[in-house]
Amino acid sequence: MSTTLKTAAPRRHTRPLRARPAPRRRAGSLTHPARTGFLLVAPAVLFVLAFVFTPLVVAGYISLTDFPLIGPYHFTGLKNYELALSDPVFLPSIGYTLLYTAIVTGPILVLGYTLAVLVRANRRGSTLLRTIFFLPFIIGLTTISFTTLLEAQPNSGAINALLKALGITDGSTAWLVDGPLATGLIIVMVLWGTSGLTMVLLMSAMQGIPREVYESAELDGAGWWRTERYITLPMVRRTLGLCAVISVIGSLLAFNQFYILTQGGPGSETTTVVMSVYRRAFVDLQLGASTAMSLILVLIIAVIAAVQFWLLREKD
Questions:
Q1: In a structure prediction context, what are the per-residue pLDDT tens digits for the chain, which is 316 residues long?
Q2: What region does 123 belong to: left with phi over 0, alpha with psi -120 to 50, or beta?
């Protein structure tokens, strides 16, 4: 009887598999989220610091001095602000500018919205209408103001000639030497010259509304007015608010049209805030006082813009 010896194979000891740790990111690598975000934001931050905050700080310091355009200056504290708030021209100019802004803003939005409704569809001739309505904004208020200055002259301008042909006036109306008449003429001119921008912004927003929304409204039997009121207006609300902010700030900073057409006259009836600041700085050569007036205007604009954004905020 024979026995066979069998040798058992040696056991192999296997180590358990372990996950390799993720490679550490270097702090100086561009793939580091914090560093990448900082590098992307840094140009904008530097731009704001250089061209917004630094000029504001310098302006704040100048407003506390009797800084002339040429010559030495001395620290005067809040004297410039006290003089500005008691100035017989500056305070009325604030009231006039606010009144002008309140009058012109609503018609600009209404006219711009109406023009956007007319040209938003890709119908035949809509491209030509868009060009015609937007062209005055491209020309600019400065050029339009010089043209209006020539055409508003009594007995020779086209405005008086047209009104005389229609039998409204005798053709000798002096538009620019009467405060209310000059203001009305400037308002009409500004409406014609700036409504094109509002039209383009609102038209772009309207064209971004999905067509399916209008088709669903048509299937539900909604007419044109209900569609505009309950679909178009709510969906272009943010763009309409943007147009309102642009119009208000532009009106508060109005200068070119008034300087060219009336130079603030007759007297100071059509003097805007910016024109008052300009005269104090470059006519009276009182840069410190004009800077104080400018900062008061900045504060007014900031308050009005904040109120607008609060009113136009999204409601839950």
A1: 444 444 445 555 555 555 555 555 555 455 567 788 888 889 999 999 999 899 999 999 999 999 887 788 899 999 999 999 999 999 999 999 999 999 999 999 999 999 999 998 878 888 899 999 999 999 999 999 999 999 999 888 899 999 999 988 888 889 999 999 999 999 999 999 999 999 999 999 999 999 898 888 888 888 888 999 899 999 999 999 999 999 999 999 999 999 999 999 898 999 999 999 999 999 988 999 999 999 999 999 999 999 988 887 765 4
A2: beta
For the chain, the C-alpha Rg in angstroms (whole number) is: 32
CB 40 within 8 A of CB 34: no
Q: Residue 38 corresponds to which tokens in the numbers above?
A: 């900082």
Beta bridge partners of 75: 65
Q: Say which residue the tokens 């990448």 belong to.
A: 36
